[in-house]
Please model this.
Amino acid sequence: MKKIFAVILFAVLMTAGAVQAQTKNPKVLIDTSMGQIEAELYPDKAPVTVTNFLEYVNNKFYDGLVFHRVIPGFMIQGGGMNSDMQEKAGRSPIQIESDNGLKNYRGTLAMARTSDPNSATSQFFINLVDNPFLNFKAKSTAGYGYAVFGKVTKGMDVVDKIAQVKTGNKGFHENVPLTPVIIKSIRVIK
Model:
């Protein structure tokens, strides 16, 4: 009887371990010209956003693009422009998922968009500080905020270093790093 119980207990524990392994959040490595940033993504909270981001990652869309907007004390934004500030064409915009309970706290990744809440494509930003004014407030154009879908787990020192680069204007773009901060690649890691 004890042996049967031990076998059943072992099977239950193995199944629980397999389920836990399957539900682990994906992690990505953002390799930049200034160092590496590791981030965990939250598909349980932002499934459409994470799927969209990972499709861009898996298609190597981000390779060679830059962090094109850097504002100390606010955020760093990238994922859509090359070093000449030419926008790379992305896929169709996604539905906003900002009412998922995640907040724009320091170190979180969120989708960049226009004034249209459902306009996010490939561009994302990393919050340098807590930015509560970017959080979801209501299902209205002004209240949707920005959808958080991940968080930096390693490399905030790199994010902070990027935040200190000298910036200026390039064409009609403001807050552009004078020396490009290149996204060498973004890859899913285990």
Q: What stands out?
A: Residues 5-9, 15-21 have pLDDT under 50 and may be disordered.
